[in-house]
From TrEMBL:
It is an enzyme of class 7 (translocase). Its main location: membrane. GO terms for molecular function: ATP binding; ATP hydrolysis activity; metal ion binding; P-type sodium transporter activity. Its EC number is 7.2.2.3. The keyword Acyltransferase does not apply. Keywords: ATP-binding, Cell membrane, Ion transport, Magnesium, Membrane, Metal-binding, Nucleotide-binding, Potassium, Potassium transport, Sodium, Sodium transport, Translocase, Transmembrane, Transmembrane helix, Transport. GO terms for biological process: potassium ion transport. Belongs to the cation transport ATPase (P-type) (TC 3.A.3) family. Type IID subfamily. It is a multi-pass membrane protein. This is P-type Na(+) transporter. It catalyses: K(+)(in) + ATP + H2O = K(+)(out) + ADP + phosphate + H(+); Na(+)(in) + ATP + H2O = Na(+)(out) + ADP + phosphate + H(+). The chain crosses the membrane at residues 62-81, 87-107, 293-311, 323-348, 828-849, 855-880, 901-933, 953-974, 1003-1022, 1028-1045.
């Protein structure tokens, strides 16, 4: 045990465990104790080894295809006696491996740090205050709070458990969740004898303990940490069994799998070993694709060597000059700096995302973000602020309580202050003017349809109904009693900080704030003697929560004490199904279908105002509650998976009222949704709220239009679905919908999974958000699972990305950064491969320049090629990797995930620019050698200088200088693959914005400038002569050629990624706020017909779209 206890903690009373560990059950450890224990005990982490070992990274760098080519070239150079070139190649290998090693090693360390940020967390009590800390900071003696979905941070002795059940299959193999207790009345299994030693009871039977890494399946509790890190039970197992598990099929056991298995197993192990180090079987999709590119280029290098040998007639033995020429072609085709540039780009992208509150747990998600076509988002806390406030309460038969003048979330520093505002009461059926929805259809003219009417030009507003200040009536008292006790949140005033503080879920906090307005909070009531005896926690499958309390004598509600009371709250439809009566006192009446319809109408009225509506009910239990045995026959109405005891308790309820809770949208949500629409991304809202609440919020943030009546009936109907209706549809019926729903209300985890499959059948690439335990399946099945930072540890573990601030615009920021990284990778790959193509064309054409001895003459020397590839190209490529996102990055549709970075445009541009580069440099060599010197190629000019080599060396110097400048100029040109270098930003109104645009990326600017100036000390310069004039002239020709090709692409609209073509309506609105969209333009009926026709096109597969017009994704 990490903590020193006199016996094993499960054998001791809680008080003795707390005494031994020097902790306080009410206040926890003090700050001084935490500091002492952190120095005394190691961090609460399992020692499962560090990340990738440095030597593994080093060997991976050595086994890269590009390095293999250089090794091959170096060996040949030393073999033919060219020690200078061999030494330079050795230096290049050392430099390239060093850069790659340190960058990848640094990236691994940074990724480890980022992963630790999303590690499971724990809610701890220290110095009398609760806070959330990383699991690694937990120490023995800490008081930990547990709730459903939490991962237990350490081994703990429980002292408070309410329906606490833990899933311990990973530790004990027990498939059924274990119900926990707090007493130390543990007996030896199979006997009635109380246990006295730890050896008598296995860990599975120590039911007053919870263990590290297990998951709370339901309920809540508190416990004292008794063991951390490797001293926990799971830590002991990890220490005893640290052997790595092999992949299936790798066994060499011939007795078990047959005589051929040793050969198969050995072969697969060898394949795994080489595939891992060569990067072909492990890594992200982009890394694997680039590794395959490297080996393809390696094959091309070997093929080019064969071409060189063939042109020189395979002379045996092969002359050194021919070998060196073959080496040069191999060097020319390999972009040696590609891996290092890619690694740096990944690190920069993850760092930028971390600053934007996005933690990337899996690099594959970083690449996948650029291809997202649909986002399925939660509402509460993501699209909205998650800081809820009660706005309306309905009590039967027709009383409406309204919270007035309270500061809604976003307008006050503390929206949970119960002293703010006032509460009025009125009769149902006459809503106040400020809450009455306006009929925009009646306010529109017949000349044009406008979505918004200015507030000062609408129809006269109705008069307010008579309202009175609310008083605490018996009906309201009982309603508040149920709302306060069926609640896990706390609201308290901190005297030291002089402000109100809360803990718990936002919905429950809002209810507690309401009860505190009448001084009827949970703490006050429990202080009056109300004692909780049972809890049935909220379950997403049945959408309700129930508690049972014993009634104290002398309570101010004058309730009898001989019966316990059952209090229930939850989704209106689910609670109504359990109610047999409505109201209390004289207003009490039996539940009828007509009354139920009226209640649902009242719920719809609240929901149409964007409020989340809950029902509150109660009933007197038959006597004082004791935990009953499970009934032999399931009570009527119980679902097949429901707890029979719970079903028995939750029956014959009395409805006390409805409560409307408002969660205002975040101000940044609507512009973010608009940006998604601009980028060809459809946003879907999957929420547990009522359909009318979901519809109102979705309309407010711009997911659906304000007025659905102007759209065709089948399209309007498919925009908003109840989960129950959507779940009933077969796959064929879902696929036949004109559009997939933009909003699904009353959504369950199973509905999310069904939505994922429906999107996938429409060729979508979706991101799915979630925060609960039940969201884990949908998060893991989505292409990009996104967990909320405030969500459960299980959800975070299943997701590839974690949002630390839970905001929707952080998702959009992550997609923007993913697209920026994708674009920049395309740019520097195009930059590097263009120069490789140009060099290869130059060298292959140079095979025709043969001197008097019959050997081909280098148009450019091997050392010059190495200098260009390693020095000239590398730094501009790094600069391109640091380019800011282009203005069009979120105005293009998602990239094709099957093609990746190698789109048709990139491949064609590479060939066009490479051919242009190779032609210009080749013409320079020809003009100098044949135009000025009459074709004099000298003798033995590949190995040494003599007087006959002056023309060749002058031509090589010119080609080297020109190729350097062309590569550097192309780096500037590749700042935009389509726009002219002289006007990269079309919104810039200045007459000549070139220098301003170039200075936007200072690293790239100085890389190009310094690289261009480095040519002069490298090449002998007597005066500005014909050679340099030709170099400058060919550089201008190359620049003109690149600009001409870009102009051709723009003019003919070829090889374009295409901007998103929007229909007559789109999601979100640019620059709008959470107050709702403001449409400045009118909308004609003809445009509706146009939208309808486009809508039909949008539902087709993306592969069938017109290549000259990109529609919105097919999945909307």
């Amino acid at each position: 045990m990490a903590g020193e206890c006199r016996k094993h903690p499960f054998l001791l009373p809680v008080e003795e465990v707390a005494e031994d560990l020097k902790t306080n059950l009410d206040k926890g450890l003090s700050s001084a104790q935490v500091t002492e224990f952190q120095a005394k005990y190691p961090p609460n982490e399992l020692d499962v080894g560090s990340g990738i070992a440095w030597y593994t990274i080093f060997i991976r760098q050595l086994c890269n295809a590009m390095i293999l080519v250089l090794f091959f070239a170096m060996g040949l150079s030393f073999g033919v006696g060219d020690f200078i070139e061999g030494g330079v190649l050795a230096a290049v290998i050392i430099l390239n491996v060093s850069i790659g090693f340190f960058q990848e090693y640094g990236a691994e360390k940074k990724m480890d740090a980022l992963r630790s940020l999303s590690a499971p967390s724990a809610t701890v009590l220290r110095d009398g205050k609760t806070s959330v800390i990383s699991n690694s900071e937990v120490v023995p003696g800490d008081i930990i709070y547990l709730k459903m979905g939490d991962t237990v941070p350490a081994d703990m002795r429980l002292f408070d458990a309410m329906n606490l059940n833990c899933e311990e299959a990973s530790l004990t193999g027990e498939a059924i969740a274990v119900e926990k207790i707090t007493s130390n009345d543990i007996v030896v299994p199979g006997t009635e004898k109380p246990a006295t030693t730890a050896d008598e009871v296995g860990i599975a039977d120590r039911i007053n303990m919870v263990y590290a890494t297990t998951v709370v399946q339901k309920g809540r509790g508190r416990g004292i940490v008794v063991a951390t890190g490797m001293q926990t039970e799971v830590g002991k197992i990890a220490a005893a069994s640290s052997k790595k598990q092999r992949k299936p099929g790798r066994s060499m056991n011939w007795k078990k799998y047959g005589p051929a298995q040793p050969v198969k197993g050995a072969g697969r192990r060898v394949y795994d070993f080489f595939g891992k180090f060569l990067g072909l079987t492990e890594g992200t999709p982009l890394q694997i694709k680039l590794a395959k590119l490297a080996y393809f280029l390696f094959f091309c290098a070997l093929l080019l060597a064969v071409v060189v040998f063939s042109v020189n007639r395979w002379r045996l033995p092969i002359p050194n000059e021919v070998l060196i020429y073959a080496i040069s072609t191999g060097i020319a085709i390999i972009p040696e700096s590609l891996v290092a540039v890619l690694t740096i780009s990944m690190v920069v992208a993850t760092t930028v995302m971390r600053k934007a509150n996005v933690v990337v747990r899996d690099l594959s998600a970083l690449e996948a973000l650029g291809g997202v076509t649909n986002i399925c988002s939660d509402k509460t806390g993501t699209l909205t602020q998650g800081a809820m406030i009660v706005k309306k309460v309905w009590l039967p038969p027709n009383n409406i309580y309204t919270v007035r003048d309270s500061k809604t979330a976003g307008q006050s520093n503390n929206p949970n202050d119960p002293t703010m505002g006032s509460i009025t009461v009125s009769k149902a059926g006459a809503p106040a003017a400020e809450d009455q929805p306006r009929d925009y259809d009646q306010e529109r003219s017949t000349q044009a349809i406008k979505f918004d009417v200015p507030d000062d030009k609408g129809a006269p507003k109705p008069l307010k109904p008579a309202e009175e200040d609310a008083e605490l009536t018996p009906e309201l008292r009982l309603f508040l009693l149920s709302a306060a006790l069926c609640n896990l949140a706390t609201v308290r005033y901190d005297e030291d900080e002089e402000k109100w503080k809360t803990t718990g879920e936002p919905t429950e906090i809002a209810l507690q704030v309401l009860t505190h307005r009448f001084d009827r909070g949970k703490k006050f009531l429990e202080g009056q003697g109300w004692k909780q005896v049972a809890e049935f926690p909220f379950d997403s499958s049945i959408k309700r929560m129930t508690v049972v309390y014993n009634v104290p004598a002398g309570n101010d509600a004058e309730l009898p004490t001989e019966n316990s009371l059952v209090f229930t709250k939850g989704a209106v439809e689910r609670v109504l199904d359990l109610c047999t009566t409505v109201g209390t006192g004289e207003a009490k009446e039996p539940m009828t279908e007509a009354l139920k319809a009226n209640i649902l109408d009242q719920m719809t009225e609240f929901a149409s105002l964007g409020q989340r509506v809950l029902a509150v009910a109660y009933r007197p239990y038959d006597g004082v509650y004791h935990t009953p045995a499970a009934p032999t026959e399931k009570p009527e109405g119980g679902g097949k998976d429901e707890d029979p005891v719970r079903t028995m308790v939750e029956q014959d309820l009395t409805l006390l009222g409805l409560v409307g809770i408002y969660d205002p949208p975040r101000r940044e949500t609507t512009p973010a949704i608009y940006e998604c629409a601009q980028a060809g991304i459809r946003v879907h809202m999957l929420t547990g709220d009522h359909p009318e609440t979901a519809r109102a919020i979705a309309r407010e943030v711009g997911i659906i239009p304000h007025n659905m009546g102007v759209f065709p009936a089948d399209v309007a109907e498919s925009m908003v679905y109840k989960a129950t209706d959507f779940d009933k549809l077969s796959e064929a019926e879902i696929d036949a919908l004109p559009e997939l729903p933009l909003v699904i209300a009353r959504c369950s985890p199973e509905t999310k999974t069904k939505m994922i499959e429906a999107l996938r059948r429409r060729d979508a690439f979706m991101a799915m958000t979630g925060d609960g335990v039940n969201d884990a399946p949908s998060l893991s099945r989505a292409d990009v699972g996104i967990a909320m930072g405030s969500g459960s540890d299980v959800a975070k573990s299943a997701a590839k990305i974690v949002l630390t601030d839970d905001k929707f615009n952080s998702i959009v920021a992550a997609i923007r950064e993913g697209r920026r990284m994708f674009e920049n990778i395309q740019k520097f790959i195009l930059h590097l491969l263009t120069s490789n193509v140009g060099e290869v064309i130059l060298l292959i054409a140079g095979l025709g320049f043969q001197d008097a001895s019959g050997f081909s003459v280098f148009p450019i020397s091997p050392l010059e090629i190495l200098w260009i590839n390693m020095v000239t190209s590398s730094f501009p490529a790094f600069g391109l990797g640091r380019e800011k996102a282009s203005r069009e990055v979120m105005r293009k549709p998602p990239h094709d995930k099957s093609r990746g970075v190698f789109t048709n445009q990139i491949l064609v541009d590479m060939l066009v620019y490479g051919t242009l580069m190779g032609t210009c440099t080749l013409m320079t060599f020809v003009i100098i050698v044949y135009g000025r010197y009459g074709g004099e190629l000298g003798v033995d000019c590949n190995t040494k200088f003599n007087d006959s080599c002056v023309p060749v060396y002058r031509a090589r110097a010119a080609v080297f200088a020109e190729l350097t400048w062309l590569i550097l100029i192309s780096a500037w040109e590749f700042k935009s693959i389509r726009r002219s270098l002289f006007r990269l930003n079309p919104d810039d109104e200045s007459s000549f914005p070139l220098f301003k645009d170039l200075m936007n990326n200072k690293f790239l600017f100085w890389s190009v400038l310094i690289g261009a100036l480095s040519v002069f000390p490298t090449v002998y310069i007597p005066v500005l002569n014909t050679k340099w004039g030709l170099v400058v002239g060919m550089t201008i020709v190359f620049l003109f050629g690149m600009e001409a090709w870009k102009w051709t692409k723009r003019t003919l609209n070829i090889l374009d990624d295409h901007k998103v073509v929007k229909g007559a309506w789109s999601q979100g609105e640019e620059g709008s706020s959470s107050n709702g969209r403001k449409f400045g333009k009118s909308m004609s009926f003809s445009s509706l017909r146009s939208w309808r026709s486009k809508d039909r096109t949008d539902t087709r597969s993306r592969s069938q779209q017109n290549p000259n017009s990109t529609q919105l994704p097919t999945t909307a």
